[in-house]
Amino acid sequence: MIRYVDEFRRKGPARAMLRRIEDVAPRDCVSIMEICGTHTHSISKYGIRGAVPTGIRLLSGPGCPVCVTAQADINRIVEFSRRNPSVVIATFGDMLRVPGTFSSLEKERAEGADIRVVYSPLDALEMARRDPAKEVVFYSVGFETTAPTVAATVIKARREGIRNFSVLSLHKLTPPAMKALLDSGDVNIDGFICPGHVTTVIGAGAYGFIAKDYGAPCVVAGFEPLDALYGLYMLLLQLRDGRAEIEIEYARVVTWEGNKRAQEVMYEVFERADSRWRGLGEIACSGLRIRGEFSHFDAEKRFDMGYVDCDDDQAGCSCGEVIKGLVAPSECTLFATACTPETPMGPCMVSSEGTCAAYYRYERI
Asked: What is the pLDDT of residues 235-281, one digit of tens each?
């Protein structure tokens, strides 16, 4: 891994960009936060955190949808699977291994619950289509990137008259979480590297209030290592010049307005609602719930999903603090000892987009 990282740094474009970053690096320490799990893994994989000047602190924020799902929401789907063994629960693979307080979906599946991994909500809809006698609940977790696809699936289910399909929506919206981080004052954030895929949908203009109301510059960057470096360079230029603007490095994909059609589909089915985030607590208008006209496809309305309040993290687990950028994974006492990808204590180690997983794989040494 060290040899691989060194090879990247020796390449001409990377070496030149690192020199440009050194030229504009401020004398005082600055903290830059990325809000995307793919950025987190790119920064870790290519050794960017260790390559930039020591005064530049790169923080990993709430960019993993699996990681920010509240423990109470994990617990209630686990309990639901126990109480309703005949209902098919379909979800993405990462969600199976996230530990609840007393169990996980993976453990419940081993005990006989009908829990299936899918790669798309359309796979869950196909299960319902093939077996009309079975109720299929799609356990839907994600940011604005995946919400339009889920919404389109619900529209398709209504159009085809498929009545045994419903969605438990735990979708989250990115800009309200960024606002909550700044309002909390728990961690100093001088600028944001904004997520490319999310912004493809919502548009760079969605972050305008971050620059206007908080004076924090934002750059929407792509996911290649050079994208991340150039996005960081653009942020440092803004900080050097005393500017707070929304800029797009990922212009080959991202626009100011975003994907209008995807937004229309998303808000045809969903509406904004308050939502609880791991580590951040309840954030106003930060989630998506299914609108009343699609209530037949809302698992919250179709079933008693239950809700039991609980702490977000297991004893000793620092996932909540990692998500907020308060600590690095290596500062958690469980990291790489009790908590590993084989024996995860929290979702940050489970998910392929989790910060702890990135540190374990690329920065442990």
From this structure: 999 999 999 999 999 999 999 999 999 999 999 999 999 999 999 99
Spatial separation of the C-alpha atoms in residues 97 and 77, rounded to whole Å: 13
How would DSSP label each residue in 5-29? HHHHHHSHHHHHHHHHHHHH--SS-
In contact, 52 and 288? CB cutoff 8 Å: no
Question: Domains, the chain, ranges and CATH?
Answer: 2-65+174-248 (3.40.50.11750), 67-173+258-302 (3.40.50.11740)
* Pairing state between β 270-277 and 281-290: antiparallel
Cross-strand partners of 357: none
Residue type, 314: Q
Comparing CA positions, the residue from 220, 282, 215 lying closest to residue 256 is 220
Give the global pTM. 0.92
H or E element in which residue 125 lies: helix 121-130
DSSP code of residue 271 = E
The two three-digit tokens of residue 317, written as one number: 């687990």
Question: CA 275 to CA 242: how far, in whole Å?
Answer: 34
Q: How many C-beta atoms surround the C-beta of residue 264 within 10 A? A: 11
How many Å apart are CA 79 and CA 120, to the nearest integer? 24
Structure tokens at 239: 């900080």
